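Table 4 source record.
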Amino acid sequence: MKNIFNAQVVSEIVSRINKLYASTQPQWGKMSVGQMLAHCNITYEMVYESKHAKPNAFVKLMLKLFVKNKVVGESSYQKNGQTAPQFIIKEDKNFNIEKERLIAYLQKTQGLGEGYFEGRESHSFGKLTVTNGIICFISISIITFDSLVYRLE
């Protein structure tokens, strides 16, 4: 799995983001490129902003038991797979704003480094550790970005 705390990885991802245009068409799925970028930004909003409500204890337990391994695993998401409600983007989003936000979040996260996130509480999965590969709320956007439908090569 790519490491968002590696400057070279962030540089590569930013380069790929910069190849997108507002008119870029998906290979599959329903989201526009602006919506896809907003979708990726939600992960970072959960980390850096108080925009999203945390799940209650029961929902958090269910997420840890049934969802966590699918989300933090190294395999790509399946086409047209189920998306958590807070990650569904229905309204149009400004491509340039979402693009700038995602790049800023990536750079901020890389700059803060692994130590900043070690032991922090995830919105959905409990305490995070670097050693067991569960910097998931950071790596979700990488996984999502890599497995989404926009050709970035």
